[in-house]
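Researcher: Checking consistency across runs. Here is ROK family protein again:
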Amino acid sequence: MSQQYVIGADIGGTHITAALVDLARHRMLPETLIREKVDSGAAATAIIETWGRAIRLAKGSRSIHQVSLAMPGPVDYEQGICLIRGQEKYEQLYGMNIKHLLADELGIPSANIFMDNDAASFLQGEVFGGVAKDARSAIGVTLGTGLGSALYADGRATSCDLWNMPFGGHIVEDYLSTRWFVKRCKELGGGSVTGVSELKMLPNAKLLEQIFDEFGTNLGKFLLAFIAGTLPEVVVLGGNISRSYALFKENVLRQVQSIYPTVSIRTAGLGEEAALLGAASHWKPSGQAR
């Protein structure tokens, strides 16, 4: 059983989600799904204890000792060193070896812990068992409080770290994240909102159309640059903003398909499961498709 199942965990700024992943069937076991709130401003010991508790709850009484973590950067994922600083989260872990700390907490060798970027894990998961399954090449873009980007090629997804790409006189994340919607809504006289969900509740249909049209134009321009350098078969859009894709889809497709008509743009199908699956697929036995 231990060779077929591993533990996948997705670490965010306010939570950890963990579950068992069935590598043979390319799916998460929903009955094992655990969500725990995390105080990312707490001491290192408290953070690691919370992560460890969630992982142990997902594991239950099963004899499983391989763990995969999907985590935002910057992190030296191979060595396990946290490099996050100045982001108001996980500051107390800066410079520490997460693999060693978590291995001690769980009572397993640090070699049994795999870490990867959350955007890369998201894309790997969608290829492993989601909307990009069996694609030979793909790019992934996560749209939320920040901008994540990843490329899938030669059987593995890797982070592209394009959030700070120059765009519109600033960086592209300023135009493709929640804070852009908040800022643009206020600029256009729509008042203060906290995010896209609240924005969509406003009664001014014309305002909403303008904001989402502008966002779609911005995203289309970014995708054209991303696709030009990678030439993928599939583009996968994820993150909370992608749930509103129908509102900005037209402008995205008009730009992308005019130049790359064979590239398929799809919204993620696995939700939070994608990063868990993607990180866990690292343990897929060699010789089998990831």
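Researcher: Does this match what you'd expect to see?
Model: One thing to look at in this run: The mean pLDDT is 92.
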